[in-house]
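Researcher: Good morning. I'm working through a list of sequences from a screen, and I'd like to move beyond sequence-only analysis. For each chain I'm collecting a predicted structure so we can compare shapes side by side. This is the next one on the list. No need for commentary yet; just the structure.
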Amino acid sequence: MKLTIRKKILLCSLLPLLLLGLIIIALASTIVKQSIIDQVENSLKGTAIATQAAYDQNTGSYLQAENGDIWKGSYNISQSETLVDTIKKESGMDVTFFYGTERIMTSALDKNGDRILGSPAGDVVAEKVLKKGEGYFSDNISMDGTIYYGYYTPVYQKDDTSAPIGMVFAGIEKQPTYHSILNILNTIIVIVIIAIVFCTIIVQVSATSMTRALNRSIACVKEVSAGNLAVTFDQKTLSRSDEIGDLTKAVQMLQTELLNIIQGILIPFLGTSLGAACVLFMKKDLNIKIQKILTGFAAGVMGAASIWSLIIPAIEQSESMGKFAFLPAFIGFWLGILFLLLLDETIPHLHVSSNETEGPKVKIKRTTMLVLAVTLHNIPEGMAVGVVFAGLLSGNNGITLAGAFSLSIGIAI
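Model: Good morning. Structure tokens for this chain:
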């Protein structure tokens, strides 16, 4: 399967988003759950302590009567139904008073509607609360087959904290609390899914827009590479302010520069072709004066083109050298002369008005030597045009498009 840019964008965007969503859900399932349980524990602890304080406000000591009732001074705890029912009504939590490990009074009812009394507390509860005197919280307390969150707090005689005489329990059914936790987690999961879907849509739209623009730019590049320099670029893509827009603008600039180069190269080509075509109209000998005028005219044009389009820009590029700014152009000028003299000595050629071969003596046809003479003449001209247009493309401020075309026209003439 081809992994396109669009698919890469989707993967790079959605995979971290999915991972983040899973992390959020995992954290929520632990942190939120634990936070709610901690809140439940604190609420149960507060209710248990408040219930204990309600019993402790009665003067006197805790004691057991002969009939088994538990009293706090003149207050009969075994008959405190109103107190525990009121606490349950106000807090929504069941409360139970234990004398030792035995349930003496409770607001919790069994399936028949009777109070759950007389049954003992568990061994773990007795160990933690009655023996060690610690508060104890559990999320798995069973009363008449119903599981509760519960908190136990020890009860002491007044002015005697050496050993608890009993304990107070506050509890709430686990199932409703568990459902509340699930509802919160489900809400978080739904929010995460909605966020992922929303981000997926945004990424999908953005990726599609980018890939379409890229495809349009690629199509234009293919057209330019195939030689179609008249291709029209999409204005919407050109107006983009991102890298895709910059790429398309760069390709458009390449198209423009290629057109300029071709035009610059074609001018000497056309000039040479038109000049060669004149032979068709000049079958007789040309008047010697006209020959001299045309030769002088061509020399003047080429000299002017060389000065204003080559020598002067070369000097301007060396302005940082101060009074020696002419030196690079001077050296290059003489190197060019020497290079042309070297070619003249090493390439066999024959001029039209001469019967003597110049350069090395070799046995080749006269027409071939004439072609070599023309080639020898055109090498510096081609180099001149190439150097100027190369400088123009490189962004040299000393070379203008008008100057480059002027040189091409001059060479053509």
